[in-house]
């Protein structure tokens, strides 16, 4: 009946955990850079820039992550005429995906800064980039932290999809362990618990931060 | 880059892709209806139920929202048979999607319920309505109306996430694309077109859900 699920099998799953974290972190960093420009373009005075950013967001929010992975993976192969390893494709796809979602989150944060702040900055005859950089973005950054943490949870969960194209992270390790131990009733719940341990504190943090930012802005929610 | 794109192979198999897309639509639409029903029941439990029920609903929401959809599918399709619950791929996919959507939608519906002015509930009580009657006749309709946009985007996210059920051989769009590209060796072309189909379905669902809003909430009834 194959081998059992013991300490060494559990350790194998644990060893795959850093890959999930690394992929999430890499995509978050890359996505922040992309998302920064997307959010700025979304509110830029120039109409073509706005269209470009909107089209980008629509494209990545309107298609499945799995398809984005496949297109990037085979797209890179087509582009460079070779079969690429899984990780650059996975990292690129998740970077582009995060860029679209973070761009939209941050656009919302920028627009949540009261209109009068823009007007005040304009009265000081600051240029658009200076208005943005000196007045708006520092305030928007505060508002954006809770939803960004919330998105990080979504990202960690979605990196599991990389397992489908063969990138060995936590979920893929779970699949491999199931194939050797034939104990899906133990392996997959353990994988789920590991994800839960990763995501739940972040979810709680996002909620706490949201309450704090709301209080700072004088927003009251709920009963 | 000296790769020759051959999209004519894709067009030859286009009817098969459409058949897959139809299963995606069927699965998503069924999961939307079932998931919303589940969410309404859970939201009632969370806002009006006794403490153990509230605790149970909270545990359900947190567990589902902090673990990846892919792992949830694996647990339902691979782990449950061990304890004697064997489902076909399509049923397992539908169950996973319903359970997943239910958790997210519960939180959305709950927010709608909490947005109902308390005076309305007091007024209903003064008229001698029972708890369930108040929920059924006073609360749920305007609550769902208030949060309908959030529900609609959650529905579309679910439709996109459904591409992941291809891993358990439910033959929806992604699974059909997988098998077609592996026999024709035109991976990039097939995934590219499938991505386009998903985008079209996302836009289609957005339009369809918008029409449902008009048909249900705007016509005939006093809001």
Q: Could you tell me the number of beta strands of chain B?
A: 0
* Low-confidence runs of at least 5 consecutive residues of chain B: none
Q: Note the beta-strand portion of chain A.
A: under 5%
CATH class of chain B: Mainly Alpha
Distance between the termini of chain B: 59 Å
| Biggest sheet record of chain B | none
**Rg estimate of chain B, integer Å:** 21 Å
Number of domains of chain A: 1
Descriptive notes:
The complex is a heterodimer of chains A (223) and B (223). By secondary structure, chain A is mainly α. Chain A has a single domain, classed as Orthogonal Bundle (MetI-like fold). Chain A has eight helices and no strands. Chain A is flat and about 75 Å long. In chain B, α2 packs antiparallel against α3, α2 packs antiparallel against α8 and α8 runs antiparallel to α9. Chain B is elongated. By secondary structure, chain B is mostly helical. Chain B contains nine helices and no strands. At the A-B interface, α2, α3, α6, α7 and α8 of A face α3, α4, α7 and α9 of B.
Q: Would you summarize the structure shown here?
A:
The complex is a heterodimer of chains A (223) and B (223). Chain A has 223 residues and is an all-alpha fold.
Question: What attributes characterize this protein structure?
Answer:
heterodimer; A: 223 residues; mainly alpha; MetI-like fold; 8 helices; 0% strand; B: 223 residues; 9 helices; 79% helix
Give me the secondary-structure topology.
The complex is a heterodimer of chains A (223) and B (223).
Chain A: H1 7-43, H2 47-61, H3 65-80, H4 86-112, H5 115-123, H6 128-158, H7 170-181, H8 184-217
Helix pairs in contact in A: 1-2, 1-4, 1-7, 1-8, 2-4, 3-4, 4-6, 5-6, 6-8, 7-8
Chain B: H1 8-12, H2 14-48, H3 51-65, H4 69-79, H5 89-114, H6 118-126, H7 131-161, H8 173-184, H9 187-218
């Amino acid at each position: 009946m194959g081998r059992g699920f013991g300490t060494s099998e559990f350790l194998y799953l644990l060893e795959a955990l850093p890959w999930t974290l690394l992929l999430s972190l890499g995509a978050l960093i890359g996505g922040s850079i992309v998302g920064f420009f997307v959010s700025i373009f979304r509110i830029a005075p120039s109409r073509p820039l706005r269209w470009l950013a909107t089209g980008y967001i629509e494209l990545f929010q309107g298609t499945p992550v799995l398809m984005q992975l496949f297109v990037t993976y085979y797209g890179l192969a087509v582009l460079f005429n070779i079969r690429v390893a899984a990780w650059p494709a996975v990292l690129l796809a998740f970077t582009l995906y995060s860029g679209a979602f973070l761009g939209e989150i941050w656009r919302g944060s920028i627009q949540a800064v009261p209109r009068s702040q823009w007007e005040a900055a304009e009265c000081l005859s600051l240029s658009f980039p200076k208005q943005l950089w000196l007045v708006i973005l520092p305030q928007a950054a505060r508002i954006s932290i809770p939803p960004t943490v919330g998105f990080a949870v979504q990202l960690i969960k979605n990196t599991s999809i990389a397992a489908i194209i063969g990138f060995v992270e936590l979920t893929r390790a779970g699949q491999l362990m199931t194939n050797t131990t034939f104990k899906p009733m133990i392996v997959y719940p353990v994988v789920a618990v590991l994800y839960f341990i990763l995501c739940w504190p972040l979810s709680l943090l996002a909620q706490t931060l949201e309450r704090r930012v709301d209080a700072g802005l004088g927003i009251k929610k709920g009963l | 880059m000296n790769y020759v794109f051959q999209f004519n192979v894709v067009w030859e198999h286009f009817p098969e892709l459409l058949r897959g897309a139809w299963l995606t639509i069927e699965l998503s639409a069924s999961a939307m209806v079932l998931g919303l029903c589940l969410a309404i029941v859970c939201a009632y439990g969370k806002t009006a139920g006794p403490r153990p029920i509230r605790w149970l609903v909270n545990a359900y929401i947190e567990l589902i929202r902090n673990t990846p959809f892919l792992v949830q599918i694996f647990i339902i399709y691979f782990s449950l048979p061990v304890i004697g619950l064997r489902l076909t791929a399509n049923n397992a996919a539908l169950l996973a999607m319903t359970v997943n959507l239910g958790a997210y939608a519960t939180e959305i519906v709950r927010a709608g319920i909490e947005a109902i002015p308390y005076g309305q509930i007091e007024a209903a009580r003064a008229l001698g309505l029972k708890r369930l009657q108040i929920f059924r006749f006073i609360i749920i309709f305007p609550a769902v109306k208030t949060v309908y946009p959030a529900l609609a985007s959650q529905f579309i996210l679910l439709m996109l996430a459904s591409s992941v059920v291809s891993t358990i051989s439910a033959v929806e769009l992604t699974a059909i694309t997988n098998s077609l590209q592996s026999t024709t060796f035109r991976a990039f072309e097939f995934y590219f077109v499938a991505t386009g189909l998903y985008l079209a379905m996302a836009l289609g669902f957005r339009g369809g859900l918008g029409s449902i809003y008009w048909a249900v909430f705007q016509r005939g009834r006093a809001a």
